[in-house]
Amino acid sequence: MEDLRVGRYNESSKTAWDDFVSRLEAHSILFYRDFMDYHKDRFEDYSLMVFQRKKLIAILPANIDKEGIVHSHQGLSYGGLLFKPNSSFKLRLAQFAAVMRFLSSNAIKELFLKNIPSCYRTDNSDMLVFDWAEAELHRTDIYSYVPKGSYTVPNRNRSRQLEKAKSQGFEVRKTASFDEFWNGILTPNLKNRFTVNPVHTLEEIEYLSEKFENELLLYGVYQKDTMRAGIVLFIHRGVVHAQYSAGDEGRADGSLDYLIDFVVKKYNTTKIFSFGTSSESKGELLNSGLLYWKESFRSVNDVQQFFRIGTKNHTTLINRFK
After folding, report:
1. Residue 106: inside a domain, yes or no?
2. Cα–Cα distance between 320 and 294 in angstroms, integer?
3. Within a 10 A sphere around the Cβ of 131, how many other Cβ atoms?
């Protein structure tokens, strides 16, 4: 414990931060500073860096709200304390204790963690740390993904749609036509079906696609020169995540199904394919239709959990050392 030091992130640490993210086991483009900072006007950053003898060994992408509560960054889908690869459990435990002690000493009473889904990592030992820190389980969402190399064909109902689509002359293309997808398909679809807007504005997604030209991709399925459906993918090292997908009002002809089948087959041989959550109302409701649609592409289900931790409980972690 004595050789661990915790400090807040500042812009002079961007290179060190991004280099650390590039080597994470739980790799995600969401943790790079260009992604985190595109909406920095909406969140007061409170990201932390943990050092051992001047070497960066862990990071916590985070922000602080108006009530003085620190969150694993609310502008990201998941987060938490991120460790260097092959960190021992004892070191992970010590780092959690050091971060909580740092927050407590800076008058931060609570830490909210939006845990990373298990498909992004193999080590879930932090669940034991949460138990020892007397963390309160605040929320649980269902989370769907297709295990790497497992996808061959969808279920019977989806296969019927694919058979229908084969006669439509569809062609899948990687495209930069975000405007066509955002304004022509995605936004009208979300408004009409769910009365919501995309999390990202068109300007934001175009900015991010320029920053991450190989990791943020748009695929469209075209009938002649008309985009009928689209999907935005976030390409992480071991996981491909479907951030947005939508078809036009005529998607009953199988256009969106055709597109999803294409991209899952393209990436699932080497990566997990993530469909994300089907939970609504802060985890209290299940969108059963959306979940069935994901399951029809052979996804399996796990959970993503949210925890509230009292920072004063860092002493309960320290007492676990023998």
Report:
1. yes
2. 42
3. 9
pTM of the full structure: 0.95
In angstroms, the CA 96 to CA 174 distance is 42
Predicted pLDDT of residue 32: 98
Q: Are residues 121 and 16 in the same domain?
A: yes
Q: Beta-strand (E) ranges in the chain? A: 4-8, 44-45, 48-52, 55-60, 62-64, 70-72, 82-83, 110-114, 136-146, 170-175, 216-223, 226-235, 239-247, 272-277, 279-280, 285-286, 300-310
Q: Is 291 part of any domain?
A: no
| Full domain range(s) for residue 10 | 4-140+304-318
As a whole number of angstroms, the distance between CA 106 and CA 122 comes to 32
Same domain, 8 and 116: yes
Q: With a cut of 80, say whether residue 2 has pLDDT above it.
A: no
Residue among 107, 105, 94 nearest 133 (CA): 94
Residue 153 token pair: 């064909």
CATH number, domain containing residue 108: 3.40.630.30
Single-letter residue type at 153: V
**Identity at 220, one-letter amino acid code:** G
Q: Are residues 32 and 129 in the same domain?
A: yes
